[in-house]
Amino acid sequence: MTALADAPARKRPKFLPTLVRTTAFKLTAAYLLIFALFAAFVLGYVAWNAQRLITDQIRSTIDAEIQGLAEQQRLGGIRRLVNIVEQRSRGPGASLYLVTTPVGERIAGNVEAIPPGTLDKTGESEIEYARSKEAIGAPSHALVRVFVLPAGFRLLVGRDLEERERLGAVIWRAIGWSLALVFTLGCFASWFVARRVLSRIDGMSETAQGIMEGDLKGRLSITGTGDELDRLALNLNAMLDRIGELMAGMQQVTDNIAHDLKTPLTRLRNRAEEALRSASSPDELRAALDGAIEEADNLIRVFNALLTIARLEAGRISENATEVDLSEIVSGMAELYEPLAEEAGLTLVGDVAPGLRVVGNRELIGQALANLIDNALKYGRSDAGGASTVTVSAWRDGDAVALAVADRGPGIPESDRGRVLERFVRLEASRTKPGFGLGLSTVAGVVRLHGGQLRLEDNAPGLRVVITFPAAATRPSGNWKLQAAPDPVETPALPPPAASTEAPKPARLPST
């Protein structure tokens, strides 16, 4: 048994407590509570208005009957009033009527019992009553009004409130069932939403756990709904892809450093050993030391280039950019390298449009162009013999400014055009020409820093490298910052992605 096997298994958290603690569940529960309170308020308001409407209708009916009965008493006296009350009391669904003497003795009506003191208070009131002696034990509720007739007689007219109470019971029952239904559906919705979100979060957590355990190829699943979790997963996957590229690049750089720096280190050691073994004069020792210093300087240049490329790609080179004259930079570089081209048996031709201005760092752009021209002079000789031409050009291309360096050499196969921008990649198998394969990597870093695009094209024959920068006129004036693009390379197989925003800092690039 290994120690890993003996270790306790990672306990998975219980689902229900985890579900209740999720943000989705809490938000849904909060919305449910708010909706339930709002629904209760609306239904309660409807119930109150319905009861008020019924009460107003009852009150209007009572007032109309009292006015009519009072008019009958005025026209025909108390006897006529009693006769009418007796007639109305026997009708189906009759209102409540009661006529009493000034001392409260019942003369006519359909009310058998009322609370004491009711007839002493004129006006409207809600009371308990009984229509018969048998109903005294189970009184009903009514809205009544007491009216004092001439000679002190009392007239009580009212309506039973059973209809209002029944409507109120129906409404409150509906409110209760509605809230219960809302609560039930809300709990189910909270559970469903939280469970769905939690399942996706658990999937993300498991994928992240696998990545932390070493599975760098793991990626978060995408459902295709385009929701916030999908957007988060897309961004995290892009981040993981970038991290994977950096890890792969780091491993490749480590391998290339071990391979490409082994030769100069071996030469350095051999020269020192040879000087110790065979040098017999100060001049020979000095020559050996000069050779060792030259090899050490080459190694320092390589490490400086690697450091600069890493800082460019990581976006740690930042400083306020300025508006520079690209036409002047290209023309100056072409003039500077013209004698070197003649020494190499090449013709360097400049074709530069005037007034091309970009926002960037003059030194970085100049170094990138110098690396391109240097590569063209190294590898730009035509295989067919005869005169070979290196063309350096710059022109306005819509809202961008483009510069190109073209030669008539063997060129780069289309399948290798993305690979040559990596560190220490050299397509020359014999590696007889000077250099360490860092020039194009540096160019790509500078282009990325300035938010530009880099294209490697077939010059038929030869290679044509095209760089485009945003023109100064397309950027707002002010305190400019360099913007780093995530991948400035544009090849037929890989279209250029959109630029991202970073604030890099310019630094001097060593020649590689």
Layout of secondary structure:
Blueprint (H helix, E strand, L loop, with lengths): L2 H4 L8 H6 L2 H67 L6 E5 L5 E4 L13 E7 L10 E9 L5 E7 L1 H51 L15 H33 L1 H17 L3 H33 L7 E4 H18 L2 E7 L4 E4 L1 H18 L8 E10 L2 E7 L32 H11 L3 E6 L4 E8 L18 E2 L22
Parallel strand pairs: 7-9, 11-13
Antiparallel strand pairs: 1-2, 1-5, 3-4, 4-5, 6-8, 9-10, 10-12, 11-12
Helix pairs in contact: 3-4, 6-7, 7-10, 8-9, 9-10
Short description, anyone?
The chain is α+β, with helices and mostly antiparallel strands and 512 residues long.
3D architecture notes:
By secondary structure, the chain is α+β, with helices and mostly antiparallel strands. 50% of the residues lie in helices and 16% in strands. The strands form three sheets. The protein has a six-stranded mixed beta sheet, covered by helices on one side. Strands 2-1-5-4-3 form a five-stranded antiparallel beta sheet. α7 runs parallel beside α10 and α8 runs parallel beside α9.
Give a quick set of tags describing it.
disordered N terminus; 50% helix; disordered C terminus; alpha+beta; 10 helices; five-stranded antiparallel sheet; 512 residues; six-stranded mixed sheet; rod-shaped
Instruction: Name the helicity range.
Output: 40-55%
Determine Rg (CA atoms, Å): 48 Å
Strand percentage, roughly?
15-25%
> What would you call the structural class?
alpha+beta
- Sheet of most strands: 6 strands, mixed
Total number of β-strand segments? Answer: 13
Q: Spans with pLDDT under 50 lasting ≥5 residues?
A: 1-12, 491-512
Quote the average pLDDT: 77
Spell the H/E element sequence.
HHHEEEEEHHHHEHEEHEEHEEE
| Global morphology | rod-shaped
Number of helices: 10
Gap between N and C termini: 54 Å
